[in-house]
Each structure stands twice: as C-alpha cells, then as structure tokens.
Amino acid sequence: MGLRDLVDRTPGLRTVLGGMYRLYGQRVEAHLGRTPHHVGVIMDGNRRWAKAAGGTAAFGHQRGADKITEFLGWCDETNIEVVTLWMLSTDNLSRPPEELVALLGIIEDAVTGLAEAKRYKVNPIGTLDLLPSRTADILKTAAADTAHLEGITVNVAVGYGGRHEIADAVRSLLQEHADRGTSIEELVELLDVEHIAERLYTKGQPDPDLVIRTSGEQRLSGFLLWQSAHSEFYFCEAYWPAFRKVDFLRALRAYEQRHRRYGG
Q1: Would you call 60 helix, strand, or coil by DSSP?
Q2: pLDDT computed for residue 126 by the predictor
Q3: What pLDDT is stored for residue 5 in this prediction?
C-alpha cells in the first residue's frame, strides 16, 4: 500500500497531514516573490487516478474538471494573468467513442461553468473544426459571453495539438499573402518568427513563463511547442485530480528560484 492509499484510508492521518500541508503552504506562499504572468497546465493523470480509486475513466475526468475552479482560485490569489489548460488533445479524439462522448460532455459543462462564473475571460484554442458542432458552439459561446470581462484569461485547449497550431499559423500566413498576390520569393525574403507568432492561437498574449505537468510524466507531448521555447517546466508526481495547493505553490517556488537566461 502506497502512502497516498494509506492516507486516503485513514481519516485521522488525513486530517493531521492536511493541517501540516496547510501550514507548510502558508509558509511557502508568504515567501513567494516573483510569480509568472502566464501558466500552462498539462492536466494529466485523470484516468490513472480513477483506476487507482476503483472508478471509471469518466469519474476521473469529472474529478479533473472539478479541480479547475479550485486551481483558478489559486492563480487568482497569486496574481497570475493568463492560464492555459490542456483539456483535450487532437490525439485524444481517437479515444473509444463511449469515453470520448463522456469526456466532451464533461468539457462542455466545465467551460460553460467557467463562463457562467463571470470571473474569467474564456478563450478556446485548438482546431475547433475537428470537434463535434455542439462542443465547438459551446466553446464559441463561452468566448463571446466573457470577452468583455477583466479577470484571468483562461485558454481552454480543446482539440489542441502544438504541431496543428503551427501548421494553422503557416497556412494562415500563406493564404493571407496569396490573397495579396505576394510571390513565394517575396514571402521568403520578408518571413520572420514574428509572422508566425502573430497567427498562433495565443496571439497577443505573453508566452507561458511556467508549464506544469501532473502525473509524473516528463514531456510536453506537443503542448504550446512554439510558445514554450523559454518556459520553465515543473513536473509533479500527483495526478491532476489529486493536485493540491501545496503542489502549486511548490511549482511557483521552483519557478522563482530559477534564473531565466533566455539562451544567454
């Protein structure tokens, strides 16, 4: 039996450790200085958490969705301005139909809840054309209904893949210049990295300062490939549904302690 299993099955121990973690978290938070402007999160481990808990994949995805509001509250407390949540990758679209339908329903409810909270500016990023029309419409409605709000910008990455994003940016650039009558030779002469950056899904936003991935996996899997060139990375062993505020504060502390040289 692992430590987490022991804690889950021992209410008294869970209470004691919970109090200790709160005190530790308060101490870490009190000493935080520099915090990131933009945090990206790969919310990984929902299914593995559910399996360990004896539940279904849908149960794990729902608990993962429930964690989002709590996480955004922590971001609000630490003055983070932009959060990107990877909710569904393009690869996830090939999951078994019964799991995918349940997952899309959970995502639709989560995004609708964020919009109804009237606290966040919801910004869908991804290839919406790959999604069912109902899901795409819900994402677009949430964006329209919150566009005027001043809170945290929450990029909900649904049907998202970093390679797709870069391909879409290049396609947009080529189409725009084709419409202008620009030749390939002329485009080659003027093309620079900013022309690509201006056409990414996150255009106009700061690149992520910190990318967090839960579940112990130590890879990006295509998340914000272009934007994360200078990001700091923090890999956490906890599955996303079990991610705690103390884990988040540890990520912020690790970020603060690193000196960003930007290739220097």
Answers
A1: helix
A2: 97
A3: 53
* 121-125 vs 38-42, strand pairing mode: unpaired
For residue 138, the 8-state DSSP code is H
Helix (H) or strand (E) holding 42: strand 38-42
92 is known as an active-site residue: yes
Q: What are φ and ψ of residue 238, in 5° steps?
A: -65, 140
pLDDT of residue 18: 55
Structure tokens that stand for 194 in this block: 């900013």
Q: Which is catalytic among the residues 8, 76, 92, 168?
A: 92
CA 229 to chain centroid, in Å, comes to 16
Which CATH topology does 36-257 take? Undecaprenyl pyrophosphate synthetase (3.40.1180)
CA–CA gap between residue 122 and residue 69 (Å, rounded): 13
d(CA 65, CA 89): 15
For the chain, the farthest-separated pair of C-alpha atoms sits apart, in whole angstroms, at 72
Catalytic residue among 44, 207, 209, 247: 44
Q: Over the stretch 5-58, which tens digit does the pLDDT of each residue have?
A: 555 567 776 566 555 555 555 555 556 678 999 999 999 999 999 999 999 999
Nearest by Cα to 210 from 232, 240, 235: 232
44 labelled catalytic: yes
Residue ranges of the chain assigned to CATH 3.40.1180.10: 36-257
In whole angstroms, give the CA distance from residue 248 to residue 233.
13
> Percentage of the chain with pLDDT > 70?
86
* Spatial CB neighbours of 105, under 8 Å, sequence gap ≥ 6: none
Q: What is the pLDDT of residue 15?
A: 67
**pTM (two decimals):** 0.87
